[in-house]
């Protein structure tokens, strides 16, 4: 089983690894199909909530994928996406694989739930984003390339470059150092995020060709101009100031969608 994490094997076409991928992908797809039947109304309610959230964010007239990501983070962490305004950042026990972001509505969530709801809303707003499955490395490892994925965040386009933004972890912003690695734009942290293609292949049905296309794209990003930490801090400050002025609008949204969120909450908690 450990061989599926070995990039030297599966990226070079190791048959054993690829067979494991197919088995895991089939198991996941079978669960997805059952959920679509068993939770049809819940999923429809959630999708309607995403439309409403996208309309709210569009009304703020934010001008970039970066600003929109920060707004989504603000709304989640201040409880506007839950029926009772309570939210806990933690590993969730209430989840649908079809809509991992639905856990946010139930008042709890970790990185995969944050990234999923962020991607859903941004897709509704026609902003390109994709999930970046990775190993979050905070200490030195001889071979991080063979570690299992332990984190996910989203990639966004901003002013001609591709960034990873981690709205689960303090809105940290990362840039590409090479085709496999994201590094923080801040000098205050040495965290590195190493891309885990196998996880994307299983969870997103990504083909090997698409994986190599990703690697080529990531490699091309490392030499592009990138935003500096002090400039990002200014952007965060300005966006946060703008959002705080909209709390009355957010309160109205919270009340307007409260019944819908309560229905979703009851369906998920009763799962």
Question: What would you note in describing this structure?
Answer:
- By secondary structure, this protein is of the alpha+beta class.
- The chain has one domain.
- Helices cover 51% and strands 15% of the residues.
- The protein is built from eleven helices and eight strands.
- The chain has a six-stranded antiparallel beta barrel with strand order 3-4-5-6-7-8, surrounded by four helices. Strands 1-2 form a two-stranded parallel sheet.
- Helix 4 packs across helix 9.
- The chain is globular and about 55 Å long.
- The chain starts with 6 loop residues before the first helix and ends with a helix.
Keywords for this structure?
11 helices; globular; two-stranded parallel ribbon; about 270 residues; alpha+beta; six-stranded antiparallel barrel
SSE order and pairing:
Layout lengths: L6 H4 L4 H24 L1 H19 L6 H13 L10 E2 L12 H4 L2 E2 L1 H14 L4 E9 L13 E8 L2 E6 L5 E5 L4 E4 L7 E4 L1 H8 L3 H14 L7 H16 L2 H10 L1 H12 L2
Parallel strand pairs: 1-2
Antiparallel strand pairs: 3-4, 3-8, 4-5, 5-6, 6-7, 7-8
Concise overview:
The protein is of the alpha+beta class. The chain has helices spanning 7-10, 15-38, 40-58, 65-77, 102-105, 111-124, 197-204, 208-221, 229-244, 247-256, 258-269, and strands at residues 88-89, 108-109, 129-137, 151-158, 161-166, 172-176, 181-184, 192-195.
């Amino acid at each position: 089983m450990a061989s599926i994490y070995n990039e030297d094997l599966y990226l070079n076409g190791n048959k054993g690894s690829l067979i494991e991928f197919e088995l895991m992908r089939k198991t996941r797809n079978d669960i997805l199909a059952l959920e679509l039947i068993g939770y049809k109304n819940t999923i429809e309610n959630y999708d309607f909530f995403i439309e409403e959230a996208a309309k709210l964010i569009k009304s703020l007239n934010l001008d970039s994928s970066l600003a929109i990501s920060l707004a989504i983070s603000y709304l989640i962490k201040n409880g506007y996406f839950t029926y009772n305004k309570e939210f806990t950042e933690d590993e969730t026990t209430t989840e649908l694989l079809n809509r991992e972001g639905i856990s946010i509505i139930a008042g709890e969530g970790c990185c995969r739930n944050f990234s999923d709801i962020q991607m859903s809303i941004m897709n509704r707003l026609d902003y390109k984003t994709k999930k970046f499955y990775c190993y979050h490395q905070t200490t030195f490892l001889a071979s991080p390339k063979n570690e299992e994925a332990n984190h996910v965040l989203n990639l966004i386009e901003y002013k001609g470059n591709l960034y990873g933004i981690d709205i689960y972890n303090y809105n940290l912003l990362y840039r590409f150092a090479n085709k496999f690695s994201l590094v923080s734009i801040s000098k205050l942290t040495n965290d590195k995020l190493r891309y885990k293609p196998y996880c994307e292949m299983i969870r997103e049905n990504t083909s090997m060709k698409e994986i190599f296309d990703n690697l080529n794209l990531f490699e091309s990003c490392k030499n592009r101009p990138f935003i500096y930490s002090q400039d990002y801090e200014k952007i965060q400050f300005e966006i946060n100031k703008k959002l705080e002025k909209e709390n009355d609008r957010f309160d109205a949204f919270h009340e307007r969608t409260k019944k819908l969120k309560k229905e979703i909450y009851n369906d998920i908690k009763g799962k």
